[in-house]
Specification:
This protein has about 90 residues and is an alpha+beta fold. The protein is built from two helices and two strands.
Length: about 90
Amino acid sequence: MTQTPNIKYLQVSCSFSDLAMSQLITPPETPQEHHNAPAPSKASPLSRFFFLETVFAILLSALLIVGGLMGASTMVKEGNPDINFAIATIQTN
């Protein structure tokens, strides 16, 4: 009966001097870190949609930025606008 080795990871690298070279690499023995992150199922549907559909979120952000820049560039701006302050005078006898 032959025993097969316990292979966990196989890393394949290629360079110009060596056409193909394979090595067996075992993962480091580190303890698992525990995070207090909330469960993804508790996220709102809107935030879950934007995290899963990143292309749509990026295009929507770009559209809002371009639209804002176009709107700001076409706004009417006056150098010295006429400002009228309302003045109330009160006289007592």
